[in-house]
Amino acid sequence: MEQKFLKEDNIFIKKSFKDKKEALEFFSDNLMDRGKILDGFKEALLEREENYPTGLLVGDINLAIPHADHIYVKESEILLCTLENPILFQRMDKPEEVVEVSIIILLAISDPNAHIKVLQRLFSLIQDQTILKEIISEDDESKISEVFS
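Given the sequence above, the corresponding structure tokens read:
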């Protein structure tokens, strides 16, 4: 059986965070508790987000795709979180501007070659506002997972 692109256990629905730092720390702590990442991942993730922002302005529903260097990842995971209230991320294309993000998709990918393939697959989905609206309005992790299969 093929492994799911986005596992139900890695989906968090309508979480509340005060800011992006708190959200990224939540993801890092989750991955660390499950033994998926190495020490230094959280710091690398926060530093990378500061230097190379990941907020994407794609329409009514916007998202961020934070990630850290593969050297901090033991086992690849993709985490998705819908937010109760949007939080601000610097834009990827215009770092001096912010975007209100309603969905965060964190990538912890151990294989640098696979990273590009994952991003390509994600970008084909996230450019469709209908799909993003479906994700943001869904309360069932299995249905969100199916969107990515």
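The chain has a mean pLDDT of 93. Try to locate this feature in the token string yourself.
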